[in-house]
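Table S2 (continued). Query chain:
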Amino acid sequence: MKNIFEFSFTVLPEHLDALQHVNNVVYVQWMQDIATKHWTSFVSPELDEKILWVARRHEIDYLSQAFLNDELLMRTWTGDHSAVSWDRHYEIIRKADNRKIITAKSVWVLLDKKTFKPKRIDEEILNVLK
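Corresponding output:
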């Protein structure tokens, strides 16, 4: 597993729902965004041109709420993998009180960019994320 990848950001008005806390859909978007940032920080442009990842499953545990102007720290790291899928873990922590907002896990499937069919996770991919 590569080191934990971190990204900090501030909750903006567009992240809020009618209850004035971060909308559940926004957490999924943030998970996708940090997964992409993590992947592109390690992958070569040549490999990135040949493959893509698609989400098969998301599991989110909501532990607390995040509100407007909260400074958040999001972390992601890779976990177990199969022949064509890889688990990715996440957590979001509010910086002001170190309170954990969510923990989450996604299963991502590797696809060939030309055929859009599942592609085996080979040694080249393992070297990027392990």
